[in-house]
Each structure stands twice: as structure tokens, then as C-alpha cells.
Amino acid sequence: MTKAEVITKISEKTGIQKDDVTQAVEAFFKVVKDSMADGDNIYVRGFGSFINKKRAKKIARNISKNTAIVIEEHFIPAFKPSKVFVEKIKNSKKIKQVAAQG
Asked: What ranges make up the beta strands (E) of the chain?
């Protein structure tokens, strides 16, 4: 599902104009990105957490040149779903049907 499809579904379910939903969704994503860039994590109860995960400094190999390179310590954005969210997906009949077919 794309962002446009999500916006359409929200608009249909709430009766709010698509333009207004688009602005709200875009504002949400901007707040999440800006907050995480500032080092803050975002916790949405019943949904999950947007967190900054720390990756330690390590030595990697460039196979084509056969050299070692150092990857400095850095942070990456991550999403950790809540237990409620995970349980909903685990118990989804549609997902089980799709998995049985594939």
C-alpha cells in the first residue's frame, strides 16, 4: 500500500477532505523525521516506537578491492511494533490465507 492509498483510505473512513488528510500525514512524517534527527524517540501507545538504534564502530571489507574499511559508530532509524500490533498481525486470518497460498 502506498502513501496515496493510505491517504485515500483515511479520507474515506473519516470523511475528511483528501487535501487535509495529506497535510496531516505529511506533517506527521515531518515531525517524526525532525524529532528523530534531534535525537528524540517517538512512542505511539498501541502502535509502536520510532527509535534511533546505535550501530557500533566496526571494520568491514571491500571485497572488490580486498581492503578493510572502518565504519564509524552511527545511528539508524528503526520501528519497533507494540505487543498489541504484533498480536493483531499474528492473529490475522487474511495473512494466514496469503501465507498458505504462497
From this structure: 42-44, 48-55, 58-62, 67-71, 74-81
What is the rounded radius of gyration, in angstroms, for the C-alpha atoms of the chain? 19
Pairing of strands 42-44, 58-62: unpaired
Question: Domain 41-102 carries which CATH code?
Answer: 4.10.520.10
Q: Give Cβ neighbours of residue 10 (< 8 Å, ≥ 6 apart).
A: 16, 21, 25
Residue type, 78: A
Kindly report, residue by residue over 61-76, the tens digit of the pLDDT: 999 999 999 999 999 9
| Entry pTM | 0.75
